[in-house]
């Protein structure tokens, strides 16, 4: 687990982020010690990872070629509108427009490395 969330998302509520992850993300993604990629890539240590780089997940060419290194800003934008950030992504998700919920989700994701 990361010692602390980045300053931009330090105020996010980890418990709320966990609830949001469970309800909106966990059907495709996993986190934690036993996390593995399935329908979507596992999200441990997402911060600092190059998009499309996990060996155990088959990403879209768009994601592999995006050049993104995930940080809070790029993750927040992607969570808000995946298709706008990476046109051609395989991720089928309407997005989350509420900045508070995005901050909560990122705070939760920052607890996994």
Task: Walk me through this protein's architecture.
- It is a single chain.
- The protein has 113 residues and is mainly alpha-helical.
- Helices cover 35% and strands 0% of the residues.
- It contains 5 helices and no strands.
- It has helices at 14-24, 61-64, 72-80, 82-85, 99-109.
- α1 crosses α5.
- The longest helix has 11 residues, at 14-24.
- It is globular and about 35 Å long.
- 30% of the residues are buried.
- Mean pLDDT is 91; it is low at 1-7.
- Keywords: Electron transport, Heme, Iron, Metal-binding, Transport.
- InterPro entries: Cyt_c-like_dom, Cyt_c-like_dom_sf, Cyt_c_1A/1B.
- Residues 12-113 form the Cytochrome c domain.
- This is Cytochrome C.
- It comes from Pandoraea norimbergensis.
Short description:
The protein has 113 residues and is an all-alpha fold. Helices cover 35% and strands 0% of the residues. It is built from five helices and no strands.
Rg, rounded, reads 13 Å
**How much of the residues is beta strand, in percent?**
under 5%
Largest sheet: none
Proportion in helices: 25-40%
Spans of at least 5 consecutive residues whose pLDDT stays below 50 are 1-7
State the order of secondary-structure elements, H for helix, E for strand.
HHHHH
């Amino acid at each position: 687990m990361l010692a602390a969330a980045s300053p931009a998302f330090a105020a996010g509520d980890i418990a709320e982020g966990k609830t949001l992850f469970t309800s909106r993300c966990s059907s495709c993604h996993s986190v934690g010690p036993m996390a593995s990629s399935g329908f979507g890539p596992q999200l441990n240590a997402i911060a600092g990872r190059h998009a499309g780089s996990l060996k155990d997940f088959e990403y879209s060419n768009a994601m592999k070629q995006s050049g993104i290194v995930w940080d809070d800003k790029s993750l927040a934008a992607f969570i808000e509108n995946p298709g706008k950030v990476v046109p051609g992504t395989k991720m089928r998700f309407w997005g989350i427009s509420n900045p508070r919920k995005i901050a909560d989700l990122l705070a939760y994701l920052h607890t996994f490395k």
